[in-house]
Amino acid sequence: MSVLVNDSTTTAAERPPAKAPGHRRAWVFTIVAGVIALIVNVPLLNAVLVSFKPDGEIAKNPISLPTSPTLDHYANVLYASGYDFPRFFANSAMIAVGTVLLVLVIAIPATYAIVRLNFGGRWIISSASGLRLLPAIFFVVPFFILFSTLGLADTIPGLIAANTFLNLPLAIILLSSALGDIPQEIEEAAAVDGASIYRTLGSIVLPLLAPTMVAVSVLVFIFSWNDYLFALVLSTSSATPVTLGAANFITSTGIRWGDISAASVLSTLPPLLFAVFAQRYLVSGLSSGAVKG
Amino acid sequence: MPPTVAERPRSSATERRKRTTAAVILSLPLILFAAVFVIYPLASGALTAFQSSTLLDQSNEPNGIDNFVSLFRSDGFAKAAGFTLGFSAAVVAIEMVLGFALALLMNRAFPGKKLFFTLLLLPIMVAPALLGVMFRLLLNGDIGALPALLDSVGLSVSLFSPDSVVPLLVVLDVLQWTPFTFLIIYAGLQSFPKELLEASAMDGAGYLRSLTSVIVPVLKPVLFAAFFLRAIDAIRTFDVIYVLTAGGPGTSTTTLSIYIYKTAFESGDFGKAAAAALVVLVCLIPFVPFIVRRISSTGMEAKK
């Protein structure tokens, strides 16, 4: 949402002339917003703090900051203790990147055909929105049976397919509304110049769609990185992603709280980095009314 | 669009055939994918609901409505439905009010706004399952900061006891998803006509009245979208609760999603799980076209 970004810059520019009493009142909002921002992030901050505490300190003073911070838990999780965590992390990365690519490859040409070449009609877009609203749990049993039959159970391609299923509707919705905003005259001019439909799509439409493609990629990456339900059902060991792996840490390693917190912090890092650095795309994608939980 | 009108008559039959061929080729990946991973699972899921099928034996003998009979005879399904509806109603109501208040609070300039805006969005990006793990770190009786904090002020509550677990889960859901309702409503406020806001601020009638008589009516479509998107997601809640309580103690926090999952993969009764999923699906489908219409119209407005 560009409105949003513009707005925050203009208000920043407007601030200096503000009168003194108004200025003092503004700080009240700073404090209130700061406290709320802190509260909603308490679980995350707590996990970060625990991950830097030596084992002895974790149980002794749960509330305080780490007095002698350590990186041991991160070392344990990443290489020292022989956990499967690095493999889970690699699985998640492959699943998320693979899903982004597959979603784009399927959604872009199809959306172009639907919106510009009037293929099938608008009902496809509407049913994509509808599909997003149906509970994913309905598909758990049929997917389990289907994936066992196809040999996709506990494989990376299998989880890529499942996450593509979850995210395609969102991609089609966002791409179709972006296509609707691109003036058709440009494509018509290209057609008059003799460009084929594929060339028009590849060299004229794709560059214009680039910002939306970035938004879709960021959202799809985060959502497939964060998936848990399908990972739980469709992976047993070799395709296990971090969400499942980190949740299993608790039972499989007993009470190694420091390692668990380091693992959960590391696993949350990729989506959080996107949240910070690609915020503009996230906000536009999420607030155009199409979101997954 | 004059150029379009001018060109259409020129496009010959071969031109049109070319476009159709291209459309089919471009849509082919979607058609194939949807056939295998959407249409087929929908059909086979609906079919499984009328078969005796288990984790170990998928011979799929048709058994009529036996699955539905056993579903409605056992009180597990009704209990899960009741818990899911109650839980969803509570969290969505609280998240709408808090998200709206937060959006109004953030809808002005103050120092540090950009930073806090980013921080407020972080919980939405954390995987619910990982947030469940983090909640366990925070709430654990031995090492958790919250029990320690409560202990130090003389309160000793067992957070996961049957009495406190449901309110606890409501609070946790509110912590994660209030940022979401906030984001949707805040985005709506950005497209709110500034003059209207300023006019109502000048008006001596008071903030509360301008809120109820100006802001809420104009924001209605956005509030509606936030409400339904959250409600739909709340109804299918699985990850956080499954990681934290696995539906317990007993079945007191079993949502419909957890019930269906457990029926399928712990009891191994695919037929009954598919029947439960079908009932949920059939109950939700009537709302879908309605919501899609409302949400897609707000999507348009938000962009303008």
Automatic annotation (TrEMBL), chain A:
It is found in: Cell membrane. InterPro entries: BP-dep_ABC_trans_perm (IPR050901), MetI-like (IPR000515), MetI-like_sf (IPR035906). Residues 89-278 form the ABC transmembrane type-1 domain. It holds the Pfam family BPD_transp_1. The chain crosses the membrane at residues 26-45, 88-112, 133-153, 159-180, 201-223, 229-250, 262-283. It is a multi-pass membrane protein. It comes from the Bacteria. Belongs to the binding-protein-dependent transport system permease family. This is Carbohydrate ABC transporter permease.
Automatic annotation (TrEMBL), chain B:
It comes from Herbiconiux gentiana. PROSITE patterns: ABC_TM1. Belongs to the binding-protein-dependent transport system permease family. InterPro entries: MetI-like, MetI-like_sf. Residues 81-291 form the ABC transmembrane type-1 domain. The chain crosses the membrane at residues 21-43, 80-103, 115-137, 143-161, 168-187, 207-229, 241-261, 273-292. This is Sugar ABC transporter permease. It comes from the Bacteria. SUPFAM superfamilies: MetI-like. It is found in: Cell membrane. Keywords: Cell membrane, Membrane, Transmembrane, Transmembrane helix, Transport. It is a multi-pass membrane protein.
